[in-house]
């Protein structure tokens, strides 16, 4: 099981027989987008009869100012969500028949996109109960045909993370023809100190592309906005592949407004910190095996005798949407929602464990 489509809310309603749906399957912001982002999108929508700006330079200017650290506009490129950031980098840096390394369990979109482009995939699994990165095995898997190494931190679907040393060791050990795709779309939710300073490697000109998204912490999943941060030589290769009018005006304006609304982001992150801790504690009290998480979701091993598909279906019938974890047929991934959302999940799982566990 690598990348299976998550049902929509309407599809879930058909299973839940009229119950209100609590959606905890797609790692969305439970508070929605910033009101400032909504207002900016609505204002831009009044000019919907006009084409947007031909390029994303205004958004990239804003991102360079937001991140600072010596980054310039030319270090950035935008896309229709984080998955298109991946796709654009692949178009620029890898060709059919060449090889890429992924570390399952990881985001299923990596293998799906690479397979669609007829690239070869080498899998170097995460190791141990902590789902740790195997640096030596990654470096040993590199060949003359390898072009990309995908690293997710915090990792989807496990929620686990790694520090700065493994990333540096991998970058130091890779030959010049290999680029690291460093996917940190969940980084705002991490509370542990010591996550890699990936931007430093970009500024230093290392072969790395950082993937960010407005879909998670900023609550703009429906706007389809993501961006990459890369050495200028790499970002320019990607920019050359993009069509004119790549992003809509409402989307770009919403993204720029979202960056300014620090209070909305803080509310989102604080809720996640408190509720993630509560979920980890309460799920453990239900005798369910839970993986410690630094993201806005937690991964749970299913009760004995049930796989992820079965448990997902049972919960959907009770009005709670979760999803099977990528590559792990006996684990589900659960978004950290509002306190009420999470209480409903816990109540449903408690009934399930009591009645059917």
From TrEMBL:
Pfam families: Aminotran_1_2. Belongs to the class-I pyridoxal-phosphate-dependent aminotransferase family. This is Aminotransferase. It comes from Microvirga lotononidis. GO terms for biological process: L-histidine biosynthetic process. It is an enzyme of class 2 (transferase). InterPro entries: Aminotransferase_I/II_large, HistidinolP_aminotransfase, NHTrfase_class1_PyrdxlP-BS, PyrdxlP-dep_Trfase, PyrdxlP-dep_Trfase_major, PyrdxlP-dep_Trfase_small. Transmembrane segments: none annotated. Its cofactor is pyridoxal 5'-phosphate.
